[in-house]
Design brief:
This protein has 817 residues and is mostly beta strands. It folds into 5 domains: 152 residues, Jelly Rolls, CATH 2.60.120.260; 109 residues, Immunoglobulins (Immunoglobulin-like), CATH 2.60.40; 186 residues, Glycosidases (TIM Barrel, Alpha-Beta Barrel); 101 residues, Immunoglobulins (Immunoglobulin-like), CATH 2.60.40; 119 residues, Immunoglobulin-like (Sandwich), CATH 2.60.40. The chain is built from 10 helices and 51 strands. Strands 22-23-24-25-26-27-28-29 form an 8-stranded parallel beta barrel, surrounded by 5 helices. It is globular, with a radius of gyration of 27 Å. The chain starts with a strand and ends with a strand.
Length: 817
């Protein structure tokens, strides 16, 4: 056992600073020592209200967390976020929670943990400023203890200032958009970010796991305690345990380092995301003073220019996608269910890795990556000292960069899904020699906490001086290339030890990038920009019809476009054809797919922007195009494909690597059934079908969750499809729909994935687009029946019924302060 006392004044000051600004290490398995404070809040938008007034003051409205006030408004051209932020409103908002502090809190430490507030948060208690945090993506802790009125009513107010625009190149949202947690702790406890788990040695027979636990004693007397450590497998059995005695001096913090052995370890990987739980308890006599439960996974990670990236000794090709933090029509609101669904969408689309561009994600997102098996590149911020927008992170960098990087790594280091840290994106000052020094400072801050994972940052240039960045690349463990993978072969000849990840790529270059990743071990993977459509950066990835204002998204405002259309998956989660093609390249489970390229209108040609792919649809319904030539694309991992129209052979084409696993057939449009069939060795195998639809007459409703938890947090995503009488989706249906919800749920949001539709996402009516729309329902805290009714003119009314239940809702999990 090693016990290290932090007695020097310098180290004590550092610890105190970190306690103020750092992120807590709180994961799904760890939150049982916390209470979630999502209810009992009021919200005020505008100039400063009273910080101490009682409830009932005019202008306050009841809200629950997570809360993003920007998404509640419509995208409008005059809104200050502009093109970058999706033309949504911003401003200053205030949150208030009034509560009675019980006398039983005497002698305890009372803290609030904010997972994410965008941005410039200030926290007041009873009119006194007690804490704050400027960066909107890292978490922070506020100590209420010295300012509480025990046995009396306290007024907590949080000011959120997102009025300085523009401060981002994408949609940020505004408000307390991630959960808030309350901790009532004994004076002797584990520091909130002070539990680290590291696999030091790992074989099939056993794993040696290091545990570092930081204990603090906030009393004026030395304390003699036991630290009990248990490792528990997901099936519930205890697989390792240890108990040590610890002396914690008065007013001091000690670091306990131990190692435990797990026999026959179940390894974590994207295919088999096995997890364990570390249960760490402080006991004094018969009293349990504190307990922390942290989920972790056991896996090895190695990387080299000769063998590539290996996980548990096996090579992994990273089929990655970049994502922003928003949840589409929910805005920035980080509901656990929405964060998990985002990971499920990525997995179902064939991705095995994700880059959290350009900020640390929510804890729920990382928990889902651990649980479902998705590798993560965890990124700190978009830029350094040179601004990309007038009020972005450059204003904070010198004062906050090391703190925020430290916070990110401390919070996230126990997640087995994280394979890499990123310390920046497309740094403007990359040519400045000072950039090398800055990169080294940031990397050193990461390595001081986590020496086990590589560090990268995403770099790009469009000039001829790429080689001048060799010194900057050398600071990093892995070179991050944005859109520059074509330079990799020459770079490898010049710097053979450099490992490369393409941290951003154009969707249209999927095959060329796959080829390099597949053939060259020093190229670890490719991350497309982007995996998902997102709000803001309006018009990136869009295409323009004749007569429309055309141009790249940075060249001006393209309202009503209010989001990015460059994703493999659209805003509400439907996969585009490019998603199937990319998955087919990397995954043996997807072997055949067919879609039809949209023809140019009679008035002229469609024009594409840089991140766009040609509009291609999973549809053989083209009224008015009878007899006109249409191009049918078939993506195939078979040796060849045959195309049939109404059982008549149209033709056969090879689809090997030489053809980029793709065939294009041109044929005159005729309604009916279009069928693509794979061919191997002359034998037909597998098929893909497209059926012409008649005009829509029915509404089909399906949900991903027919039994919600009655916790005022759980969500149901309901897909609305407009079909003909035979159940075939009508991709041209654009009916206006109305929705009503009865029972124990509320209608949270509605959308159709059309990023030029400026109807508000909060409402009970919306148009369909391409025959589809989506409704999100949120459970109440009361279990019971739920009934969703959807109507549209000329359509049969559809009803979906399901229930919410109290099963699985932990007592005391949520509190109103």
């Amino acid at each position: 056992m090693t016990i290290q006392s932090l007695r020097s004044k310098k180290r004590c000051l550092l610890m105190a600073t970190l306690l103020i600004i750092s992120v807590l290490t709180v994961q799904a398995g760890d939150r049982r020592h916390l209470l979630r404070v999502d209810t009992g809040w009021e919200f005020y938008l505008g100039n400063q209200p009273s910080l101490t007034a009682s409830q009932g003051q005019q202008g306050w409205t009841d809200v629950a967390l997570p809360h993003d006030w920007s998404i509640l408004g419509k995208p409008e051209a005059h809104h200050p976020m502009g093109n970058d932020g999706g033309f949504f409103p911003a401003g200053i908002g205030w949150y208030r929670n009034q509560f009675k502090a019980p006398a039983s809190w005497s002698g305890r430490q009372i803290q609030l943990y904010f997972e994410g507030v965008y941005m410039n948060a200030q926290v007041f208690l009873n009119g006194t400023l007690i804490g704050g945090h400027p960066y909107g993506y890292t978490s922070f802790l506020v100590d209420l203890t010295p300012h509480l009125k025990l046995g009396a009513t306290n007024v907590l107010v949080v000011k959120v200032d997102n009025s300085q625009q523009k401060n981002s190149r994408w949609y940020t949202g505004s408000g307390i958009y991630r959960p808030v947690w309350l901790r009532v702790a004994d004076p002797v406890h584990l520091t909130h970010w002070g539990l680290a788990l590291t696999a030091h040695r790992l074989t099939q027979q056993e794993a040696e796991v290091g545990v570092e636990a930081s204990l603090v004693n906030q009393t004026d007397k030395p304390r003699h305690v036991s630290l009990n450590i248990n490792f528990i497998h997901a099936k519930g059995q205890k697989v390792a345990s240890k108990s040590v005695l610890v002396d914690v001096p008065a007013g001091d913090t000690v670091l306990v380092s131990e190692r435990l052995t797990v026999n026959s370890p179940a390894l974590w990987s994207p295919e088999n995301p096995n997890l364990y739980e570390a249960e760490v308890t402080i006991v004094e006599g018969k009293n349990k003073l504190d307990q922390r439960r942290e989920r972790f996974g056991l896996r090895t990670l190695t990387y080299s220019a000769t063998k590539g990236l290996c996980l548990n000794g096996l090579p992994v090709l990273l089929n990655g996608g970049c994502v922003h933090h928003d949840n589409g029509i929910l805005g920035a609101a980080a509901y656990d269910k929405a964060e998990e669904r985002k990971v499920l969408l990525l997995k179902e689309a064939g991705f095995n890795a994700v880059r959290t561009s350009h900020n640390p994600p929510s804890e729920a997102f990382l928990d889902a990556c651990d649980r479902l098996g998705l590798l993560v590149m965890d990124e700190s911020f978009d830029g350094w000292r040179t601004a990309k927008t007038p009020f972005d992170y450059a204003l904070l960098f010198d004062a906050w960069a090391i703190k925020d990087v430290t916070s990110m790594v401390l919070r996230d280091r126990n997640h087995p899904s994280i394979f890499c840290w990123s310390i920046g994106n497309e740094i403007i000052e990359r040519k400045d020699p000072q950039a090398v020094h800055t990169a080294r400072l940031l990397k050193d801050a990461v390595k001081a906490i986590d020496p086990t994972r590589p560090v990268t940052s995403a770099m790009t240039t469009w000039d001829s001086e790429w080689e001048r960045y060799d010194t900057l690349f050398a600071v990093h463990d892995i070179g991050g290339y944005n859109y520059q993978l074509h330079r990799a072969p020459n770079d490898h000849n010049r710097v053979p030890d450099r490992m490369i990840i393409q941290t951003e790529s154009y969707p249209r270059d999927a095959f060329a990038n796959w080829s390099l990743v597949h053939d060259e071990p020093y190229i670890l993977g490719d991350f497309v920009w982007t995996a998902l459509d997102y709000l803001g950066e309006s018009g990136i990835g869009c295409y323009h019809y004749p007569g429309e204002k055309a141009g790249e998204h940075w060249e001006g405002d393209f309202y009503p476009w209010h989001g990015a259309y460059c994703g493999d998956i659209d805003l509400v989660g439907w996969r585009k054809p490019i998603s199937h093609y990319r998955s087919l390249l990397y995954n043996p489970t997807e072997t055949l797919y067919m879609a039809v390229k949209e023809p140019n209108p009679a008035s002229g040609a469609i024009t594409l922007t840089s991140w766009a792919v040609w509009p291609t649809w999973e549809s053989w319904t083209w009224p008015g195009k009878e007899g006109q030539p249409l191009e049918v694309e078939v993506y195939s991992r078979h040796q060849a494909v045959r195309l049939y129209l109404n059982d008549q052979l149209v033709g056969e084409q090879p689809t090997t690597r030489r053809e980029s696993f793709k065939a294009t057939f041109t044929l005159p449009y005729q309604s009916g059934c279009l069928k693509a069939v794979g061919v191997d060795g002359g034998q037909e195998s597998g098929s893909a079908l497209l059926q012409t639809a008649d005009p829509a007459v029915r509404i089909r409703l399906t949900t991903d969750n027919n039994r919600l938890k009655a916790d005022e947090q759980d969500l149901a995503f309901v897909t609305i499809e407009l079909t003909d009488a035979k159940g075939v989706l009508d991709p041209n249906a654009s009916h206006k729909l109305s929705m009503t919800v009865e029972g124990e749920a509320s209608l949270l949001a509605v959308e159709n994935a059309d990023l030029t539709d400026t109807d508000a996402y909060v409402g009970d009516t919306h148009k369909a687009w391409k025959g589809r729309a989506q409704v999100i329902l949120k459970a109440t805290r009361k279990p019971g029946s739920i009934r969703l009714t959807v109507k549209g003119e000329g359509l049969e009314t559809a009803v979906l019924t399901f229930r919410s239940t109290s099963k699985g809702v932990e007592p005391g999990w949520q509190v109103a302060l």
